[in-house]
Amino acid sequence: MRTLTAQEYYAEIAEFYDEETKSPIMLAEDIVLFDFLENEGLLQGAVLDAGCGTGLLLDHCYRPNWEITEYRGYDFSKEMLDKMKSKWPSFRERLNRMSFLDDHDKIGGTFDAVLSLYAGLNCLTRPEMSLAFHNLWKKVKKGGTMCLMTYGNVAPEDRETSLHNIVTDKKGYAYTMIEESVLYTWLRDLSDSTDDLL
Fold first, then answer.
1. In CATH terms, is domain 6-189 a member of 3.30.390.80?
2. What mean pLDDT is reported for the chain?
3. Which of 60, 98, 179, 187 has a beta carbon 3.0–4.6 Å from 102's, enabling a disulfide?
4. Which of 116, 53, 55, 65 is nearest to 91 (CA)?
5. Is the dihedral of CA 143, 107, 57, 148 positive or negative?
6. What would the pLDDT profile of 38-52 be if each residue is shown by its tens digit?
7. Alpha helices of the chain — where are they, by DSSP H?
């Protein structure tokens, strides 16, 4: 049985991804996550949503008086972005199709907060994560914050879910298959840091 690539996996789940995120456990986790981002002041100013998927950040946080003055998002999955664009047509021009490994200079400017939420980074090997962190860091304004979220505590190259190796004879959502815990890899205030992360 052939294993799906990450691109194929997200193409397959794009249509039902939003429904999967409405389970009671995932909704509870989302409430905690977005309350945390709000309380930390990460949902204001210019925000880059790296690996934006179908737009869960907007689904949970957008309101007419929100404090995000500039929202930009990107994802490597055309199908996930298409779903987001259908839900949020007014944000279509603020979205790019690209990956964590692409040159981030094509996204103009820098941001007060660069966020990578959910399992996007889990699709990368450890060397790829190093490049991804470097690319994301370049988009953070001096004094801004980068918040990266991954799942589990197994090295990416040793993690079956790092490339979403799922059973192909049933549709499933990798979130429920990740090792035991959810953790924030790190949240770091960058106000006193140099321009180089790595």
1. no
2. 76
3. 98
4. 55
5. negative
6. 888 889 999 999 999
7. 6-13, 17-20, 24-39, 56-61, 78-87, 126-137
Residue with tokens 């990798």: 174
Which two tokens mark 46?
């210019």
What are the distances in angstroms from CA 81 to CA 15, 144, 157?
11, 26, 27
pLDDT attached to residue 133: 87
Name the nearest CA neighbour of 96 among 44, 46, 52, 148.
52
Tell me how far apart the alpha carbons of residues 97 and 48 are, in angstroms, rounded to a whole number.
Answer: 13
Domain ranges in the chain are 6-189
Q: Which of 60-69, 91-100, 120-129 has the highest mean pLDDT?
A: 91-100
Q: What is the pLDDT of residues 157-188, one digit of tens each?
A: 455 544 334 333 334 333 332 333 333 333 33
Distance of alpha carbon 88 from the chain centroid: 17
Tokens of 54: 């179908």
